[in-house]
Amino acid sequence: MKKIYIATSILLATVLVSCKKDFLERPPLNQVSEATFWKNANDVYLAVNGVYSQLPGDDMVYDDAAADNAHAQYPWESSATAVSSGNVNSTLDAGWGFTAIGRANYFLDNADKVTAIDKALLERYKAEVRFIRANAYFWLICKFGDVPLQIKTVVLGEENIPRTPKAQVLKFVVDELDAIAKILPQSYGGGKPNEKGRITKGAALALKARAYLYDGQWQQAADAASQVMTLGYSLFKVTDEDALNAKDDYSTWVDFANADDEKKFRLGLRSYEALFHQVNEGNSEVILDRQRIPQQDANFLNTLLPSADLGGWGSIAPTQELVNSYPSYKTGDLITPPTPAQRAAWYKAKDPAFKNEYRNRDPRFYASILFDGNPWNAIEDDYTFKWTEGAGNTALTGYSVRKMVDPKIYRDQIDNHANNILIRYAEVLLTYAEAKNELTGPDGSVYDALDQIRTRAGMPVIDRTKYATQATLRELIRNERRVELAIEGQRYMDIRRWKIAPQVMKSIFSISDAVKPIQVRTWTDKLYLMPIPQSQIDLSRGVLKQNSGY
Fold first, then answer.
1. pLDDT score of 29
2. Per-state percent for the chain, helix, strand, coil, to nearest 5
3. Using CA atoms, how far apart are residues 500 and 527, in angstroms rounded to an integer?
4. The dihedral sign for the CA sequence 159, 161, 167, 171
5. Which residues are registered as beta bridge partners of 400?
6. How deeply is 259 buried, as exposed, middle or buried, from its count of CB atoms within 10 A (0-12, 13-18, 19+)?
7. Is the distance from CB of 466 to CB of 472 less than 8 angstroms?
8. Which of the four pLDDT bands, split at 50, 70 and 90, describes residue 157?
9. Of the candidates 442, 486, 438, the residue with the CA atom closest to the CA atom of residue 463
């Protein structure tokens, strides 16, 4: 079956390329005459595919590094280093941009000029583009609060548009998603123009659930998630291991009760890590992904995440606090880690006790975090991770990211072109569990949603007695969300909407040093929102007003 790939012809690029100067990023209409485009169904097809190129991609990992899950050591790669340190002012561009919105508006303003096209298909194309615009506005209000709401192409003289209240923009977003969910199909059969990977009804409803969750509208979030849960998605699972994976010896890390226990653990680990690999693109868990063109449109996670021993840059490194969040494989409860000083002393003395905190942990820990001694034969024969302190292109915390690194791509020595998963079914289950618990407290449906996620990972189900209150289950849900969605870009908003950022945005240390931080982090409440770049305020001649504190 064909998939939709993010590609544009030279003609399409000249039609839809955005202007860098204008703060609403109007497409420069003087580059291609409209009289020579917008003529037939293929023009519309090319144009809508060009708008797809504005979906987020592998840059999502930096949002976890702007929060407490990871450390971004190279400030030139993203704004995450500055944001996480609290060193934020109006010279920083933390994601202010209207390229996707400008392209979508231009498409929607012109697509109806084409009459030689099936009307139902045209409405579906427009719904796909409306989703991309709604998604762009959603992330803008997450980062900046009030933003200019513009749903028509901006023309000269109309650039200076004031900010619209966040609540009004959010209503626009969810109303759009509700409307287009009635137009979009649940799935696509394949072949032009029904390629796999196009935006579906499930994607619209899942983004709507996320938007309501972030805003604390629990009933609406639960309802939208419930709708997605009826559409046939399921958590991705494998039923066996290949020969390379089978070589990994976890008996040194996990005290297995018997052979069945070991099999459960190993299949949980493999199911979780393999759902992100290129060979499993479009699996049953994927609701929305950013498509990649084989051999052309690279996914850089195989370069950004690993350390130099695997040809990577160590751009994003897990923090110790993320490592601490992975619960016990035996009980399902959080572990009690050693103090930073004790860990550093053990590490420097090469004391065997150093490795004890990595024993009997959630299988997702071994699938996500490269720690000293973690085996990974799939990527290289007899490979185990060894942190080399001070080496070039090495993560500074003592850990590297394993999750979303594709070992087959590394072995084949080719560029990674795996799709970036933007919304998956596990998130929907977590959304439902959180929203429902906030509404009514624990009930069977909440436990069931969480148990699906834990069972897929090879973990024990939730102890109904231990987590019987709304408060205790809330803390478990929040930690489960952190573990399940680690390095997927959700943590940035989670710590803000839960109002825990002042507590969790602490300076971070390496495993070898409990005294000198590798990054000093400070928090002030202005950081709940990012600043509008001063250059954009100047360009608007003062029509745009700055967020408080900047």
1. 45
2. 45, 5, 50
3. 12
4. negative
5. 370
6. exposed
7. yes
8. low
9. 442
Asked if residues 5 and 292 have their Cβ atoms less than 8 Å apart, the reply is yes
Distances (CA, A) of 447 to 222, 322, 424, 428, 515: 14, 24, 19, 14, 41
Q: Which residues neighbour 117 within 8 Å (Cβ) at sequence distance 6 or greater?
A: 40, 41, 44
Phi, psi of 501 (to 5 degrees): -55, -40
Q: How many Cα neighbours within 13 Å face the side chain of 285?
A: 25
Sort 388 into a burial class: Cβ within 10 Å, 0-12 / 13-18 / 19+: exposed
Q: Are the C-beta atoms of 332 and 462 separated by less than 8 Å? A: yes
Residue 254 CB contacts under 8 Å (≥ 6 apart), including other chains: 262, 265, 329, 359, 360
In the predicted model, is pLDDT for residue 25 greater than 60?
no
Locate 543 and state its tokens: 């029509």
Which residues does residue 72 pair with via DSSP β-bridges, in sequence order?
316
| Closest listed residue to residue 404, CA positions, set 265, 278, 250, 284 | 278
Query: Does the pLDDT value for residue 5 go beyond 60?
Result: no
Question: Residues 6 or more apart from 355 whose CB is under 8 A from it?
Answer: 372, 373
Percent of the chain with pLDDT over 70: 93
Which pLDDT score is estimated for 11? 36
Token pair, residue 510, equals 């390496």
Nearest partner of 423 among 169, 195, 231, judged by Cα: 231
**What confidence tens digit (pLDDT) does each residue in 510-545 have?**
999 999 999 999 999 999 999 999 999 998 888 999
Q: Which domains does the chain have, with CATH numbers?
A: 41-53+98-183 (1.25.40.390), 236-283+296-416 (no CATH)
Residue 187 tokens, joined: 């799935």
Mean pLDDT for the stretch of residues 370-388? 97
Mean pLDDT of 372-387: 97
Structure tokens at 464: 């109904």
What are the tokens at 81? 């280093």
